[in-house]
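Issue 218. Parser rejects a valid record. Input:
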Amino acid sequence: MADIPCTTRRAALASLAGTFLVPGVRSQPAWNTERIQALEAQLRAAPYVRALLMERRGATFDYYKQGFSGSSRMNVASVTKSVVSLLVGIAMERGAIASVEEPLAAFFPEHAQGPGAAAMQRVTLRHLLIMSSGFGRATTYDDYIDLSRRLYAPGFLAYALARPLAYEPGSRFQYDSTDTHLLALALARRLKVPLMEFAQEALFRPLGIDGAEWPAGHDGVPIGAAELRLTAPEMLRIGQMMRAGGSWQGRQVVPAAFVREATARKIATDIPPRGRPELWGYGYLWWLSSIPGDESPAYNASGFGGQFIYIVPALEVVVVTLTDAISRAVAIQTATIIRETALSAAR
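Output the parser choked on:
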């Protein structure tokens, strides 16, 4: 299969002296040419990667496989979770949610006397945001099928709230997509408009994202765990906004204080650190890590199969990927391409 070189390739290869330079900022190189060429070679050998985009200091690099383009829209899987986090932050600023410490009972009072009544008083939005609700694990990284069945059938909310607590809320990380849709349901309860309408007005349209697709479950609420469909350039804009502290083209889209909280380490995860342990963990539905070499802090939105929005503030770089794989192994391989090859081009 032939590949389409990056659409900005003419500009990117304008400098043959070893770096890609941003016009007017020639003392500050954006990309290392040799490493960009190595990245392209690696991408050509990775059939599952449909798109990889990078932006740094105004200079862009984009790579698409044949048949794929900047208008191609894909399910970004659990990147959706990170978007839900941002919507919670906006809702808090607008007064729809008082605090991340609000318990579930405050959102679902009709279930407050049910079998999960005690848990509903103890589990808060914060616990859902950091994947530490304490509920028995309902989904794993690799198994989304059972949850999908529940999402498209009646009774999801009652099921989710009736789960027994398996451990103390907040005491340990346990990845659970059920909790993220529960978070979306809680958010939807406080809004004056449907959640998708809120997302379009508060987040998507300010970023120039006009065609986002976000299917709803049986309850009519967009699925908080996954299923959001974006293009690679739209993902890049989300990453650029995050890098700018929630700001986009002079407008504060997500509160800066919430961006700082969302990307600050709240809890250790079950993923072994590949660097300084204190830099690896989880924020508010955003993954935290460090990059090889100088151990610069990084954070990312991660979707199953290798859908990533990866931000390294110290390098001023945002990298996004889309793949057509349904594989945890491919997700690991894609993350390796980002961390070991793509980011090296920004040094």
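Fixed in the parser; the record now loads. The domain at 85-193 is CATH 1.20.58 (Methane Monooxygenase Hydroxylase; Chain G, domain 1).
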